[in-house]
Amino acid sequence: MTLRSSGTLLGVGALALSAGTAIAAQSPRLIPGIQRWAEIDRIPRHHFVATKGVPEPYRALRNPLPATDTTITRGAVVYAANCLSCHGQAGKGDGAAGRGSTPSPFDIAWLSEMKISRIDGFMYWSIAEGGRPFSSAMPAFDTSLTKDEIWAVTRFIQAGLPCAQGASRAESGRCAR
Fold first, then answer.
1. Residue 130 burial (10 A CB sphere; 0-12, 13-18, 19+)
2. What percent of the chain has pLDDT over 70?
3. Cis amide prior to 57 (ω within 30 degrees)
4. Which of 6, 78, 104, 136 lies most in the core, judged by the most C-beta atoms within 10 Å?
5. What would the pLDDT profile of 108-127 be if each residue is shown by its tens digit?
6. How far apart are the C-alpha atoms of 67 and 63, rounded to whole Å?
7. d(CA 152, CA 145)
8. How far, in Å, CA of 133 to CA of 48, rounded?
C-alpha cells in the first residue's frame, strides 16, 4: 500500500467515524424511545429479572384466562378502577395520583411492547407484589384483587391497553365499541 492510499484510507475512516458519531448523537431524535432502552437496566424490576429471573413461585405461572375480548374488557375495568389513577388513561405513567411518587409510575404502554410483558409470571408478580420488593410506591394488589382480576388486567396490558390507546371508555370502564 502506498503512502497516498494509506492517507486516503485514513481520511475515509475518519470521515466515517465522525459521521457515525454525529448520527449517534442524534439517535434519540432519529429513533424515538432509544434513550429509554439504553436505561432499561436502571429500572429495578427489570434489572432484578435480568440478573436473577422471575422469582419463584411466579416463574412457572401461566394465565388461565383466554385472550378474548371479554377477558380484555374485564381487564380494562380492573385497570380503570385500580391502575388508571397512577398510570394514566393511556398507560404512560402520567396519572394524577402518581405525580410525586418515587419512582414515578412506570409507562406500562411501553411495557406492553416489551417481550417481557408476554411472560405471564412476570406480569402477575409485578401486579400482585407491586413495588413491595423494591420499596417503591406502587401498591401490592395480591390482597385487594382476585387472581382472576390480576390475570384479566394482565391480558389487557398484554393486548396493548386497547381502550387506553384510542377507544373511549364508558363510565363503567368498559371499552366502547
1. middle
2. 68
3. yes
4. 78
5. 998 898 898 999 999 999 99
6. 9
7. 11
8. 10
The closest alpha carbon to 150, from 87, 85, 69, 61, belongs to 61
Alpha helices in 57-175 (DSSP H): 69-82, 84-87, 108-111, 120-129, 147-158
Residue 145's identity, in one-letter code, is L
pLDDT digits (tens, 9 = 90+) for 62-105: 999 999 999 999 999 999 999 999 999 999 999 999 998 888 89
Cell of 105: 409510575
**Integer Cα distance of 45 and 118 in angstroms:** 15
Q: How many CB atoms lie within 10 A of CB 93?
A: 20
Work out the pLDDT band at 147, boundaries 50, 70, 90. very high
Residues 6+ apart with CB under 8 A from 16: none
CA gap 93, 102 in Å, rounded: 12
